Amino acid sequence: MSLSNLVETKQDETPIIDNKGSIQGKVGYSTSIEVCEPSGVPVNLMEYEGISDLQGKTLKFTVELKQGKEFPEKYCHEI
Question: For each of the chain's 79 residues, which pLDDT tens digit applies?
């Protein structure tokens, strides 16, 4: 369960940094992790003692990009 809590982010925001180290905007995102049987049925993590008990299970990691903002005008074309 602690592994899931370390990865899961409901709503976060991070800067977009160019190769010169300047911030060129921000992106809002969320992440989640889910452990499933090979058939795709989610499992209850509270039923397992440790991470080694989850061998053979499928790990589903989801990243959702929610918004981008504060982009310079020169990058805001053909969107």
Answer: 555 566 677 888 999 999 999 999 999 999 888 889 888 899 888 888 887 888 888 888 888 999 999 988 887 877 6
8 Å CB contact between 37 and 57: yes
Q: 3-state DSSP call for residue 66?
A: strand
Q: Residue 75: what residue type?
A: Y
Length in residues, the chain: 79
What DSSP character marks residue 53?
G
Q: Which amino acid is it at 37?
A: E
pTM above 0.85, yes or no: no
| Closest CA relative to residue 36, chosen from 4, 8, 58 | 58
